[in-house]
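Quick bug: Nucleoporin SEH1 output formatted oddly.
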Amino acid sequence: MSSIVHTEHRDVIHDCSYDYYGQRMATCSSDQTIKIWEQNEKGQGQWIVSASWKAHSGSIWRLSWAHPEFGSVIASASFDRTASVWEETAEQKPTPSSTPAKRWIRRTNLVDSRTSVTDVKFSPKNLGLVLATSSSDGIIRIYEAPDICNLSQWTLQHEILCKLPLSSLSWNPSLFRAHAPMIAAASDVATSNEPKVFVFEYSELNRRWTKTESINVTEPVHSIEFAPNVGRSYHILAVASKDVSIFNLKPIVEQTGTSRFEVSQAAQFNDNFCTVWKVTWNVTGTMLATSSDDGYVRIWRMNYQKLFKCICSYKPDSSSVSHPLDSQTAAIINSTTTKFFKKGVGTFVASNQIQQH
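Here's what came back:
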C-alpha cells in the first residue's frame, strides 16, 4: 500500500523521520519548518498534521526522534550552524477543525559548530539521553542530558575530529554489553580520493573515542546506517553513495588489548544508475530500503546464505512493483515492509509531497 502525503512545505523536503513505533513522522525542509504527522484513525493510510512551526533560520537537513522512554523529543540539524532539541508539551485547545494542536518547545539550541550541522542522531537508549551531531567542519560532537527531566541542560562530552567535512552519521544500535558504543560517520566531499566512511569506538578505560577503521568508499557518501543487531557476532553497515554498499565489520581484539575490525564487503549494487540518497534497515537487519534520485524505493533482502538481492522496486507514481515477482515474494513484501520498517523511507516526488510506502 502506498499513499501520497501533501505536506505543503514551500521548499525541498530533506528528511522524513519516523518515531520508535512508526505511528508518527516528522518532516523538515528548506522552508525552515518542521511538521509532525500522525495517522488518522478514521482513514487508513491518511496522515494529518498535528504541529507545524518555523524551527531554524536556514535549511533543516536532518531530524531524529529520541526513544519514547524519554518522552516525545526530537532533534533537528540545520544549515544555520545549530542543532536544536524540541519537546512536546500538553495539548492546546482543539482547533476549529477539531484536530488537537500539539505544541513543541525548543528546550536547547546547540551552537558549538561554526559551519552547517549536517546530521543529528540520538543514541541507543542504553547509553542514556545522548545526542551526536556531525558538521561540515569535520567534527562529531556528542552531548548528554545529565537530567532527563531538564532538557534545557546539555553537556558537550566529546569532540571527534575527522579530516573531511561530514554529511551523515549513525550509532550502532546493538544493545549487547559486549559491544562498546560505536559511531560511523561519512563525508560527501567530491574533491578527494580518500576513504569517506569512518568507524569510531568508545573506550571506557580511556574515556575517549578512537577511530578503529576507515572504510574504502571514495565516492561522496550521503547516508549511512548500522543494521540492528539481533545476535550476530559482527556488525553490518549500509552506505549510500553512487552505489549501495553493505559492509560486515567483525570485531578483532589485539594482544595489546586494542580492538579493530575485519571489514569485508557483503554486497555492492551498481544497477541503480543514479545516486542513492537514503538507506534504512528493518528492525531485524535483514531487509534494506534505499531511495535514489530516480524516484524509486528499492527493497533488498538477505537470504539464508547471507546474500542480498533486490526483491522489489516501487515506482514514484504508483504502488506497483517495477519487475515481476512470484506470489511468495509478493506476500513477503506486502507483509514485511509494513510490519518491520518502523522508520520507513519517503520518496520525495515533489517539493511538497512525500510518497509513503
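Actually, after a second look the formatting is fine. Residues 319-353 have pLDDT under 50 and may be disordered. Closing.
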